[in-house]
Structure formats: C-alpha cells, structure tokens
From TrEMBL:
The lineage of its organism: Bacteria, Pseudomonadati, Thermodesulfobacteriota, Desulfobacteria, Desulfobacterales. It comes from Desulfobacter postgatei 2ac9. It comes from the Bacteria. Residues 103-133 form the 4Fe-4S ferredoxin-type domain. This is FAD dependent oxidoreductase. The keyword Coiled coil does not apply.
C-alpha cells in the first residue's frame, strides 16, 4: 500500500525501442541510478542511425555516436537489454505498470564469439532487410558490423540440413535450436516509447514508379548504397546494371505534404537529400545532380550554410517544382521524368540515369500501435500527456525529428519518467 508521498510500487523504467532515442533515454535514467529495461524488436540495437553513412550535424558515421553509447551501456549494470522482443500489453497506472513482453528465439547463446564459422557453412540465404532487400545474406548472420549485442542470429528459415551444419561448425557450443519463444511480465513505474519511424512505403506513390522501374530508389536505399557496410561496399551505382550514374535526380516530398499519403513535413528529407548530393559529388565529381522541390527547409544557421555551399556547386541544380510522373526509357533503364517549374511556369521533361525518392518518415506506431493507454494524433504520432504521466513518447515516436532533436527530446523524457517515480 502506498500513500501520495511514499515511493511508487516500482522504481524501474521501461524503454521500448533501442534506436538512438531509446538508448539516450535508457542511459540518462540508468546513469542517475534507476533500473531500466530496454526492449528492442530487432536482433540489434542502433535503429535507423545504424543504417546511415553519416548523420548531422557533424556528418559523423554511426560508429561515432553508437559506440560511445554501447560502451556506456556495457559499463552500466542498471540496464537490462532484451532484443528480439516486443511489448504485448501495458496494464496499470503511473508508478505501477505490468508489461507483458514476448521474446523470439535467437538460437544463439552468450557463448558466441562472432567467429563466423556458422555463416561459412550455411547455404540458406534470406533477403537482407538491413539493406532494404537490395542484397541477400546467409540465414546465419550478424545483423551488421556494429551490432549490439555482438552475437549471431539463426533465422528460422534456415534449412534442416544447414541447422546441422552450423551446429557442428560452432566450436563454442553457442548454437541452440531448442530455444523457444517466451512471454514474461515486468513491473515498472514508467514506460517511454521510443519506437522510431519507418520509411514511407514508396510503392504506394503510384505516379513515381518505385517498384516498377529498377533505377528508382528511395533516400534510405541510397544511404545504404553509400555506406561501406552496405550492399555495394559504399559504391553508389545503378541497380539495373551497376553503372556509375552521370545524372541523378531527387524528388523531394515523395509522399510527404500530400493529403493522399503523409500530410505533414517529415523534417529530415531536405537535409538528407543535400547530404546525399555530397556523397555523390565525392564519388563522381562530374555528375550532374537535380533536386526537384516544393520548398527547401534547412532549419538553423549550420544547415542553411550547408545548403548555401551546395547551391554554389555548378553541378548541383535546384528546380522548384514537384515531379509529377515518371517512365522508363526503352533499352537503357534511364528514367524520364516530368515536372513543372513553378517559377517559370514551364513543363520540364528530363531523362536521368537514376531517380531518388525523398520519402518521408512514418511513425512505427502508425503501423503497429502499442496496446497501452496512449493518445495518438491522426498520423499515428504519440501525444504526450504530462498531466497523466507514466507513459511517454521520445524522439520520432512523438514527432518528425533529426538525430540531435531526438536526443534532446529523449533526455527530457527520461526526466519525465523519473518524475513519475518520484511523485
């Protein structure tokens, strides 16, 4: 029994989502002494940041931020990490929640040394979702080079023969196919949802041809192509023929600021395309880059200066106009696009080697709503109710945001969670 001024039933905090916002929330709470349960549905922490080549404001590689956080995580005994895990239900009230968590089997235990012998003998291949299906990987795999925990995963799709092979190949008795899915309850005083975002499904944008034409890709696919641990080891090439592109167009607001898709601005897309232009220019100094936009949003002096440098580049062209339709040039795989220049009023027809769709961010909760007493806006973002307390949203679960803003917000949500426990 508790009174209004006594300690809550539970002094623990749960953070749902192990991306940059979830990591920040968990670490900020744990480093001031609170027990934290960090729940991540993927096999590794890191979220979207782990898929980037560089991120703003300093254009750091993911290793810059993630490795520091992983070190802090290893050094802190207050954090318990559950990967391949999802929250099934949240019951209770602020200070006293019961959370049901379901964990899928990894089929690999803590003996794993990441020697890779299991992958060498495994012949079963699966689509590599980390690279958005642009390549395939073995069914015995390390999620990526910065995976945390550094432990292999055995995909359930692995053939029976391969299961025997990988088990025999493992010298450390780390492979265990007897592992089963399990569900358990955790008692916590507050829950922070840092469930992040999904790239908007570009196949739903009928007029922009994604999925029909091979040389139309999304901004996150380009990010993976440019990354040294991506499907092409950092080489930006056309998917159809591995050709070095000489002309590349970007279609901004692909599915964003559109009442038929995402009605809001996703905040990150303009800066992402400007960053991608620097990737291309670094590899192909003579390539011509065309950025079709409604209006460019570069908030803050640093971002505006970044835009000004690209605007001065003689091989980067900014066209104020939205790409309306696309088609494929017969025999070449080149992309024909049609847009209207809103300044001159002229219709533009252009052929490029490759088209990049700057798709927006959709909150994961719009696709998979948590079974908890949360309030959502029309787009699926969680609305924080600070008067009620107990359940909060951090980072892109709450609003479209870049890495810096997400981290700042996550620190605030850690404090809100702590305040719930201290009432």
């Amino acid at each position: 029994m508790t009174t209004e001024n006594s300690a809550p039933v539970s002094g623990s905090i749960m953070v749902v989502g192990g991306g940059i916002s979830g990591l920040t929330t968990a670490l900020e709470a744990a480093e001031v002494g609170y027990e934290v349960f960090l729940i991540e549905k993927e096999a590794s922490l890191g979220g979207r940041v782990s898929q980037l080549k560089h991120y703003f404001p300093k254009l750091c590689p993911p290793t810059c931020g993630l490795e520091i956080n992983y070190r802090r995580l290893k050094d802190n005994k207050n954090i318990k990490v559950y990967t391949l895990s999802e929250v099934q239900k949240v019951d209770g009230k602020p200070g006293n929640y019961t959370v049901s968590v379901k964990t899928a089997p990894r089929y690999v235990n803590s003996n794993c040394t990441c020697c890779g012998e299991c992958a060498k003998v495994c012949e079963t291949e699966i689509s590599n979702e980390f690279n958005f299906g642009m390549d395939r990987r073995k069914a015995a795999y390390l999620p990526h080079n910065m995976a945390f925990p550094q432990r292999y995963v055995m995909d359930p799709a692995m053939s029976k023969d391969d299961r025997e092979k990988v088990k025999e190949a493992c010298k450390y008795n780390a492979v265990d196919f007897t592992m089963e899915e399990r569900t358990f309850d955790l008692k916590v005083g507050a829950v922070v949802f840092a469930t992040g975002w999904q790239p908007y499904d570009a196949t739903r944008i009928d007029n922009l041809g994604f999925g029909r034409y091979q040389n139309i890709i999304t901004n996150m696919m380009l990010e993976r192509l440019a990354s040294f641990n991506g499907p092409t080891e950092g080489k930006i090439i056309r998917p159809s023929d591995d050709k070095a592109p000489e002309t590349i167009a970007f279609a901004q607001c692909a599915g964003s600021r559109d009442e038929n898709h995402l009605p809001y601005c996703s905040y990150i897309c303009c800066m992402a395309s400007l960053k991608h232009a620097t990737y291309i220019r670094a590899q192909y100094p003579d390539a011509k880059i065309y950025i079709y936009y409604i209006d460019l949003r570069t908030p803050g002096r640093k971002y505006e200066n970044f835009y000004a440098k690209l605007k001065a580049d003689k091989n980067v062209f900014f066209v104020k106009g939205k790409v309306a339709e696309v088609s494929e040039e017969s025999g070449t795989g080149n992309i024909n696009l049609v847009a209207e220049d809103t300044i001159s009023g002229e219709k533009i027809r252009q052929t490029v080697d490759m088209l990049v769709l700057a798709t927006g961010m959709q909150p994961t909760c719009a696709i998979d709503k948590p079974a908890a007493d949360l309030t959502f806006d029309d787009e699926g973002f969680i609305i924080n109710d600070f008067s009620k307390g107990g359940l909060f949203a951090a980072g892109c679960a709450n609003k479209p945001a870049d890495v810096v803003t997400s981290n700042q917000n996550a620190t605030g949500m850690a404090l809100k969670a702590i305040q719930t426990l201290r009432r």
